[in-house]
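re: ur question from the group chat, yeah i did fold both. here u go
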Amino acid sequence: MKSPERSIPFCIFLVSLAVFSLARMQIVSLNAEGRRQAWCLAGDEPSYLLITHSIVMDGDFNLYNQCTARDSRFFGVEKCGGHAARRDLNKKEVYSIHLPGLPLLLATPYALALRAHLSPRAMVCLFMNIISALLAAQIYLLCREVCAGDDSASTGTRGVWMAIASTAAVVFTPPVIFYSNLAYPELPGALLILYVFRHAMSPATAASRELFSMYRSVDVSACGRQNASLLSSNAVAPSRRYAVTLTRVIVSLCISLLPWLSFRFLPAALILLCMLLTQKRTAGTPRWPVLLLCGGVFVLSLALLLSYQYRAFGTVSLSAGYNLQDFGSRGFMGTGGILGLLGLLLDQGHGLLAWSPVYLLSFSGIVLLVRERRAQGLWIFILLVAVYLPAASFVHWWGGFAPPPRFMVAAVPLLGGALCYALCRTQRISFGMVFGALLALSLAFGYLGCVHPLSLYRHAHILTKFYPEVVSRIFPSFIHLRRSTWPLAILWLILIIGVTGHYTAKRNAGVRGDSERP
């Protein structure tokens, strides 16, 4: 990245943080007290906050004290049971259905709020604002890296503006704009997945971030070429062999934290771990330190999580909490997989394209990436599948009582990178015009959702508040099956295939042959 561009990610972070903070101020202020904190506080959020309160006050995950003392009043809720999956009142034990990863992340801002006599819920929202702003900066960097080496994107300001536009298409549209002020694990999961993916796809960058080394520098100025070569082989290679890098430690922790956020992130964590272990090494750098560090930390973290599940529920299943509810074995595999597979994308109330139609063009970017940069494109596709399939198979694929589309939050950053690549490679004016129109529509839906946050919990599109008939005539419903569901679904699939095929044709995409790629 050129010197003038180095400040752009930081500027994107600041602008995004300002926008998310303005949206937060419409919901809760930092000095809010009592019930004023609980406006638009519904679904799983109170349960996550109650677990956080237990961690801060008691240092454990047992909610018995919090339920009996009604500690949910600290964040404005009169009564909250924490979505308990197991109650053993004789042993004074109550454990929540939710995994403790997100509450562990929220514990620090929650504790700071209690110490500073501020609203715990507002401080948690501010923390989520920061997570969202970091995600925005990471998306911009991904867009620049995806288009690196392409003449139309890597030179001049055109590529910078394409990356900024693609970043805005992700962070200021549903679902990210909605979840930037909500305590749900999907947004931190999206940040962790994107960070690890960028690291795994950029071995040269990762190798340059070594923090500790046995030999910090080697003076070869007075040595001949043979002596310099000898010094290099005897000093630099051993230092890299036993070097501990800050980036590798952070990446290992990020992968290990993903299953703690949700059991639906376990496939994505395994894919990322596979990417990291198959990453090309620089000369003289062996593979076994990475295997021991990343694999060892992941195995240890997973063992700790399974031990928590066994302590809380008497089984090592990651979906134990859901299995103890009425879901049974459907906690991970839902009813009617085809409904979730199509519903996450097309459902009129919870589908990604219904709320952010700009992602219609991201499929073109995926096809172009697989065609032109096979390794990078295939990894993006595989990771998208690893995020999409568990969400579509979940019994509540629509995300439960939460703003839509909840389970696509972790997938849209990768779709944003594909969208940017399509912008860089498709040299047709019509593509830019369609992108602009769909982006404007997606931004409008995001704005309306932030202005009317209560309408996001109606299991219906925001347009039904103004034009009830329009949405049902355009998008199918997979929650309430109707006569028009499957015809509309087939029409949308044909539209997606047609648009993707049109803009990925070589005469339209401006594709130079593989032999001409740098």
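okk and heres the other one u asked abt
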Amino acid sequence: MRPESRFRDWMDSRFAAVVLSQTPEEARSLVERLEQADPGPLPDPRSRFDAMYRLVDTGLLLREGRIEEAVEALESVRKRLGDCALLRLMDAWILFLEDEPDPAEEALRTLFDLLKPDLPPDLRIPSLPRDDSPPGRLDRWLAARWVGILYIQLVLYYRDAPMDWIERAEACLDSAARDGFTAETLAPLGLGLSVRRLQQLSQHEDALALIRAIRERSATLPGFPADAFVYDEVFSLEALGRREDALALCDAILANAPGDYRMRTEKARVLRSFGADVESQALCDALLLEDPEDPFVLSLRSGARYNLGDFAGSLEDSERILALAPDDLQARLSRGYARLQLGAFREAEADFDQVLQQDPQMLDARIGKGKVLSFQDRFHEALILFQRLLKEYPDHPAILYEVADVMFLMGYFDDARRHCRRCLDKEPGHSGALVLLGMMAIREKQDAAAREFLEEALRNDPENPYAYNELGYLHHLEGDDGLALQDLDTAIRLFPGYADALANKATVLYYLGEYEEAMGLAERALELSSGHPVALSARGNLLIQEGEYGDAMDCFDQALRRNPDFIDAMMGKVTLLRMMGLEDEAREWQERLRELEPGLEDELGPDGPDGDDGDGEEDGKARDVGDE
């Protein structure tokens, strides 16, 4: 065998050890064993052959996750080789490992198309520098041989790879067979693509059956690990709603390999998908101690924090991702939702607009834009946006609910109810629609109907903080503040950053005379939502107790700017105006109250709400919460 041919085969074996090994440890061990068995025809350190030899060491660094070191090593090789096929292959591999699936797929696909179809005898390749020297031929031969294998592995790694990627990977598998890869080498890759195809088609039962058949046969397939496709098995179990089975499988793997970073990430993802946000966040915290810049784990934790009401934490994680990857649309979308909840409406709108500039059809961004318009009281703009969405998605429960919510905020209760009913027709038991129906029933003094809607919402979603918040408010209206506090405490436990529940609890505690705790809750609610009418009204009433009349009036005025018909704020304002001796103004606001709420006639005596003498101990409770 000519030395050049021997070197080519020796390099191919080293590449196989690096690319096909199941673990980084196995890859390094195989390379070391190859070199011990046959040091090979080591090239002259000054030659281009030597530069390609160094590329294999770069591959080992990539397998071990030492990407920065690999990039540095690659740059030194690039200076010696210039643009060549193997360097393009390594660049694509780095994109793959840096969790950039679309650029990695494009790079690998482009390189495959350059290298594989109708390859001429002299291996000249369009858009690559012509190099017919022995090193140039070796460069293109190795890259052509391995680009398809890396493409398959890319598709196997990204579980949500689209069907056209899977089809191209299957073509790469056929090409690899023609290139002389053995059936033993290609069998795991082929089975993996079959699993991925079944999952893409949502045939998860079939995928599970195939994975289990693979496991039964693994003992007879050399080099086939017993835990092959374990991540796919977890995913299929999760997709089938078998949470406990999915978590048990994660724990079984971690019992033997407690430091398995990817499996711990998988478990954090499963916990997050099933709503176990506290546990998911705790696991993400531990993972981020090991890799503070893992964008996937940061994204998981951002979502968990958001669901737990820690909007500032969710915002922080989103911004960390954007610092690492400024074009990450999902991170920008998450930041928009966090800003929305924190009351930074203009900034949130800017995030949604930027996402929509790049992807005008992204549904979550369009819904977010509608929400931020609604939060800014731009109800007609929000309604137009949601109604356009409804034309595109006439049966989408989430959009039907958003239309109902805007209709509710605009005071169109009949239209809101109609859209809630349509939402429930499409998704029976939709807890949001049931809670909204309960809210409307409360405001129309249909307490029995309200309780029925809210309790049904809790039967369908036992940990729904919004339903507990409304039940707490209903108990408060009925005079049972003990039960009200129980429900509001449950809502806050489930959603610690829920401004409505914090504000409602502050109101209940105000009526119970627990002023210090009530003030702390009102201020916390205002930190989360700066213009929250209920929190502002509660704070205004509490400031009256402290003799801070000017600040109290400012609170009532802010609440009324946000909700001009907010009765609690009007009642507080009447009380305060009378205390300040401004009878004419007090009488004007009292008349507005009577027009809005004729039922308050008995509570509005000549001295203000409930004949209050200014000590703030009124007993009447306004039937309006100004919920956001």
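fwiw on the second one: The longest strand covers residues 604-605. The chain has a mean pLDDT of 84. idk if thats what u expected
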